[in-house]
Amino acid sequence: MNQQRREFLKRAGLAGLAGLGAVAGIIPTFALEKTDPSVFSNRPVPGATRWGMLIDTRKCRDGCDECVAACHRTHNVPDFGDSKNEIKWIWKAPYEKAFPTSSRQFGSRNLDGLEVLTLCNHCAEPPCTKACPTKATFRRWDGIVAMDYHRCIGCRFCMAACPYGSRSFNWLDPRPAIETYSPDYPTRERGVVEKCNFCSERLVKGLQPACVEACRGKAITFGDLNDPESAIRTMLAENETVQRKPELGTLPSVFYII
Amino acid sequence: MIEKALKGNRTYWSWVALLCVIIAAGLSAWSRQLNLGLGVTGMGRDISWGIYIAQFTFLVGVAASAVMVVLPYYLHNQKAFSKIVIVGEFLAVSAAAMCMLFILADMGKPQRVLNVLRYPSPRSMVFWDVLALNGYLLLNLVGGWAVLGAERKGVPPAPWTRALIYLSIPWAFSIHTVTAFLYAGLPGRHLWLTAVLAPRFLASAFAAGTAVLILLAFILKKRAGYDVGGEAVRKLAVLCAYAGTANFFLLGTEFFTAFYSNVPGHMHSLQHLYFGLHGHAQFVPWMWLSLLSGLGAVAVLLSPALRSSTPWLLGACSVLVFSIWIDKGVGLVIGGFLPTPLEEIVDYVPTVTEIGVTLGIWAVGLLLLTMLLKVVVDVRTRD
Ligand code: SF4
Ligand code: SF4
Fold first, then answer.
1. pLDDT of residue A29
2. Which element (helix H / strand E) includes A145?
3. A227: left (phi over 0), alpha (psi -120 to 50) or beta
4. Spatial distance between the Cα atoms of A9 and A184, rounded to a whole number of angstroms
5. Residue A8's pLDDT is what?
6. Is the pLDDT of residue A27 over 50?
7. Is residue A134 part of a domain?
8. Residue A232 belongs to what domain range?
9. Which terminus of chain A is more exposed, N or C, with fewer CB under 10 A?
10. Which residues line ligand 2 (CB under 6 A)?
11. Residue A9 domain-assigned?
């Protein structure tokens, strides 16, 4: 853990210096979620960090969904038990659905039945933020595509714009459908959109994202894509990796080793 | 002038009362939706826009089509359109008002609608669409009303009204172009990601809009004794025929590009809509009904003999409106979500609440149109 952990504390420390970490520390439930994007413009090193994730599907165990459960528990994601009103931040999807345009004919390895983790890609060129008429969803200084639940008007334009199905809408009041309430993250109201936030509320505390921490197989690596020394960059350099639908030009920050 | 809308005979009041009943039912459905959330509709995580946005898209087209009478009358001095111009303008006003109500009904947090203006986001097409629609509504309302007011006093309309009307012409094209851009710029939604979407929107709008105008002209003649003149209707029928032809031509080019190129992403949405995909064929009967009836209607309109016979003309116009309503609403908006980004097909069935809200909004639009046209008829038939 140590090298990665240090990397984290270093970045989170930067955030703290700028004052925001302190605010989030005092009022943890506020975290970074409802902050005006303009707050981030005078960061010490704007744009220098770009959080990213590398998922090693070879290490991801069949049928295991501990990361999914951890994420949904941490973020008070409701469970309505049906696919129509479903809200999900991270989930497993069949390989051929997550990578519909990938080549599968006469492949070296039988990928039938392979399930891969899918979540918001925190795209560097996110079509969702461009479509949003209120800037309720926006790209932060550190590459995280964030949501302001208090500004969102629920037009669902971002959902139409996201080519990965990463966004969910609160069709009903989510609160009664939350199994175990977590005080560390705000619950949402009916009528707004939500999605994975790369655990920005944990990052400011120097913690790894909940899914990364929950994975016993160490299948998920999280780190700064803009730091050539980071563990994730080393792994990207050493392995053959793919992104979802790279042909769309969204520049996903989530990478996969298949 | 508005007092004229408050005087009428029994038929007028029964019609208004009927609309009010539907509006009341719509309001009660809407309050249910406000209380429980949009989960009471048929929309869901995968098909996240439904009949509200479909009606919106269709009605922007109806609004834009006022230009089909305004342009020839004001730019080309086509006197035949003198009596129908105002009908077109007020139709545009009512349609634009309905569009805004449909957007409002579709929002998860309608109480925050002003956020669109508080945090203007010019990179978002919605921002431009809101400006375009509101502007267009005002241009037509103020322009039409001022011309009518001047007519009532027996004086020529003030020069600024002409400026407004001239401005409304490019504006009409802009509202439907921007509406197409809401869809056409989204990566990964292949049915929408096409450069001919805006031209197709304009063609289908001008076809459906002129057809609605022709139908309105007949209703006004029969019910209110207001005759816009046979010449105007004949000219509109020709415009309608060619706009309809252009629409189906553009649809044909979509088919060619998708299926000749054989690129799966481009084919899948059309396959799903017209032939069914992965065992799902919910839209297939509707799409063929739309396609065949629309082609039939255009064929009738293209034939000079048939389109000059009133029953054929009315039949063809009604069928064409219905055909485009299915194609643009059901097919294009809802079908555009399928297959989903994860290559799944889900079904969508609007709920009773959703249909109630939809009918309520249509009734509001019809009420507005009825009252505006009542004023027109009273001002014009008095002298
Ligand atoms: S994956 Fe979707 S929601 Fe996430 S940043 Fe990219 S476009 Fe936006
Ligand atoms: S639903 Fe909310 S976040 Fe999404 S585009 Fe609309 S206002 Fe923006």
1. 41
2. strand A145-147
3. beta
4. 19
5. 53
6. no
7. yes
8. 51-102+112-257
9. N
10. A 131-132, 134, 136-137, 152-158, 193
11. yes
For A:156-215, CB contacts with B below 8 A are 156-157, 159-165, 168-173, 189-193
Mean pLDDT of A50-79: 96
Residues of B in contact with A134 (CB under 8 A): 112, 115-116, 118-119, 121
Q: How many CB atoms lie within 10 A of CB B354?
A: 21
- Domain B2-381 class, CATH top level: mainly alpha
In chain B, residues with a C-beta closer than 8 Å to the C-beta of A154 are 38, 107-109, 112
The whole model's pTM is what?
A: 0.91
Q: Classify B351 as helix, strand or coil.
A: coil
Report residue B337's pLDDT band, with 50, 70 and 90 as the boundaries: very high
Any CB–CB contact under 8 A between A218 and chain B?
no
**Same domain for A30 and A129?**
no
Q: What angle do CA B99, B243, B106 make, to 5 degrees?
A: 15
When pLDDT is averaged across residues A135-163 and rounded to a whole number, the result is 97
Q: Under the phi-then-psi rule, with left for phi > 0, alpha for psi from -120 to 50, and beta for the rest, what region is B7?
A: beta
What is the CA(B342)–ligand 2 centre distance, in A? 21
Is the CB of residue A250 below 6 angstroms from any atom belonging to ligand 1? yes
Q: Return phi, psi of residue B35, to 5°.
A: -75, -40
Exposure letters A167-196 (e unless 16+ CB within 10 A, then b): bbbbbbbbeebbeeebeebbbbbbbbbbbb
Interchain contact, A133 vs B118, CB within 8 Å? no
ipTM of the complex: 0.93
User: Is A36 part of the contact surface with chain B (CB cutoff 8 Å)?
Assistant: no
Residue A158 located in a structural domain = yes
Q: Is residue A53 lining ligand 1, measured as CB closer than 6 Å?
A: no
> Any idea where the domains of chain B sit in the sequence?
2-381
Q: A115 to chain B nearest CA, in Å? A: 13
At B2, is the pLDDT very low, low, confident or very high (cuts 50, 70, 90)?
A: confident
Contact A172 B37 (CB under 8 A): yes
